[in-house]
Known about the structure:
- With 250 residues, the chain is mainly alpha-helical.
- It has 2 domains: 3-17 and 28-86 and 186-234, no CATH class; 87-185, no CATH class.
- It contains 11 helices and no strands.
Amino acid sequence: MSNQDDYLAKRDIIEAIPEEETKSPNMPIDAYVQEAENLYHWCGDDETELTGAGLDWSLVQDIPVRAGALRETQSIWFKERFAQEEAEQQWQEESPAGYDLRNQLLHGLLYAYRNAPDLLSRVSAIADGSSHADMIQDLNDIAVLANETIEPLQQINFDVSLLEKAATTADRLSDLLAAATKDRADNSSARVIRDQAYSHLKQAVDEVRQCGQYVFWRNEARLKGYASRYHRKIRHSSRDSSAPTAGESA
Length: 250
């Protein structure tokens, strides 16, 4: 089956994992999935010993499907996170022009309506507020107000084409801001499902590893296949970095 098929086969089980049983990965997902698949192939020669120690062999058989489901959910979350990062970049590039346009419009309206207190009060109400959302709403509100009371603007030779630009800019920036701030990638539903899929795979991997470590505790040749090479490498690197260098005392 494809990774997508694996996820579809496991989706209901994965999404039913409660929050208190959901773990966050403590190593790169690609490395973890590869270790899980390596474990699946490694323990195939030890079925008799492992099942003899009480291991449910269906857990071993289920590892490839759980691993495929995790790969798929990781890809979905990565795609969402990347799309959000792109939107954030676009917002950073385009929003300054939105603020500049709003200020340009307000400048023109304040002068055009200088002798119309009722219109000035409406402009002042629009200008109130300083958030990104306020700026976007201001552009739209200015376009509506100015199009309703266009004559004073025409009298000062104001560029009325900016009103249509204000409306289209408001639409564009509204979409960008929503995409850039949607759920935040670290708390998104895609991230949660990815963690649930990781937890589902981890449950099987942990059971198999613990049984293998129990059975082969005095057989180093077989025991090594039931431990994480990634974490072993990290531990060795940590010990190497803390070892005294030449000229230092241990």
